[in-house]
């Protein structure tokens, strides 16, 4: 008898291609739960789920729907947790590994969108576009020379992280004739070169770059990686750009580096808490261009992410090892659980 494979996702906005692809697949039972107002019904759905496709925005998804050890205890059938994005801030990966649950993300699905916004923030800061916009809207009198910025062409950009997004940023940066450096402790110099940058140590990257741009995940190793010491190690007058994750940079330390004039400006898409309050100190600075964690949020990127997620879930439920497995060490235990839960039941 065929086993109905149950996929449950949080009821947050998702491109319709996700539901269409899974809903049309024989043997897949797709269900959606409301993230507010119907907790009992939601828990009943999750308790039966083989796959939980969880929203990746940590401050938009209520905490009790984050994948924690407690949620995993309440969901004994769960085999796979799938993040709705490249990030997986709403998932306790260690708890999943301990429970024999595989974790996947959708890395690369929105890489070009994030890379484009990285360059957009860079140009916005370097050419002081927001200062000009605000001055015109507020009716201030200023000359063009008062808001004169710098070209980005020919400058040196240092990328912290050389995955899908860092590689895409490097490609765009080279179109501006920029020198590209990269620090990524998980890649050797040859692989970094193959992806379009020259390898550098963290300290070298800080001291040599006119622009430092973050493209690494937030982990135990990267949390507060950019503190007062790191900002002090950057070149005077450098720019800081991040489209990575809030928490990798220390917001108070960045404010001090900008306020003192050591750094010339910053383009920030991510925050400790999102969205940041209107009275956030960084938002008071004219040389900060801010966005609301939207670098990976375009129509094209949302479609790509949803499609990649649906394809990957279908591959896993078909018994294949996923390409974007976050916790590969879980695989032997997971494979046994998968066989017991789905294949054994199918033969019963």
TrEMBL record:
Family annotation (PANTHER family): D-ISOMER SPECIFIC 2-HYDROXYACID DEHYDROGENASE FAMILY PROTEIN (AFU_ORTHOLOGUE AFUA_6G10090)
D-isomer specific 2-hydroxyacid dehydrogenase catalytic domain sequence ranges: 26-327
Protein family per UniProt: Belongs to the D-isomer specific 2-hydroxyacid dehydrogenase family.
Gene3D superfamilies, alphabetized: NAD(P)-binding Rossmann-like Domain (3.40.50.720)
Protein's name in the database: D-3-phosphoglycerate dehydrogenase
GO molecular function: NAD binding; oxidoreductase activity, acting on the CH-OH group of donors, NAD or NADP as acceptor
Alphabetical keyword list: NAD, Oxidoreductase
Residue ranges occupied by any D-isomer specific 2-hydroxyacid dehydrogenase NAD-binding domain in the UniProt entry: 119-295
CDD domains reported in the protein's UniProt record: PGDH_4
């Amino acid at each position: 008898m065929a086993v109905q494979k149950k996929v449950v996702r949080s009821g947050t906005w998702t491109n319709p291609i996700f539901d269409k692809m899974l809903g049309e697949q024989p043997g897949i039972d797709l269900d959606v739960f409301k993230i507010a107002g119907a907790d009992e019904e939601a828990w009943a759905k999750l308790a039966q789920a083989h796959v939980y496709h969880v929203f990746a925005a940590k401050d938009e998804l209520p905490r009790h729907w984050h994948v924690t050890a407690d949620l995993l205890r309440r969901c004994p059938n769960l085999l796979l947790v799938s993040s709705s994005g490249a990030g997986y801030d709403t998932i306790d990966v260690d708890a999943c590994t301990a429970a024999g649950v595989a974790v996947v993300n959708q890395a690369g699905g929105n890489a070009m969108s994030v890379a484009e916004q990285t360059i957009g923030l860079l140009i916005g800061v370097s050419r002081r576009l927001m200062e000009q916009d605000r001055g015109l809207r507020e009716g201030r009198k200023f000359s063009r020379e008062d808001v004169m910025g710098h070209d980005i062409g020919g400058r040196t950009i240092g990328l912290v992280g050389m995955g899908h997004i860092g590689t895409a940023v490097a490609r765009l940066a080279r179109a501006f004739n920029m020198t590209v450096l990269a620090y990524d402790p998980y890649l050797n110099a040859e692989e970094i070169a193959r992806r379009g940058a020259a390898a550098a140590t963290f300290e070298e990257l800080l001291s040599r770059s006119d622009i430092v741009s973050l493209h690494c995940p937030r982990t135990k190793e990267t949390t507060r990686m950019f503190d007062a010491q790191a900002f002090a190690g950057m070149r005077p007058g450098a720019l800081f750009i991040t489209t990575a994750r809030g928490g990798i940079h220390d917001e108070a330390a960045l404010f001090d580096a900008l306020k003192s004039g050591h750094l010339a400006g910053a383009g920030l898409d991510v925050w400790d808490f999102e969205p940041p309050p209107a009275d956030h100190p960084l938002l008071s600075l004219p040389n900060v261009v801010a966005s609301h964690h939207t670098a990976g949020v375009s129509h094209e990127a949302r479609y790509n992410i949803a499609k990649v997620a649906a394809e990957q879930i279908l591959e896993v439920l078909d018994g294949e090892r996923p390409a974007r497995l976050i916790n590969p060490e879980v695989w032997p235990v997971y494979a046994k659980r998968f066989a017991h839960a789905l294949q054994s039941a199918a033969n019963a």
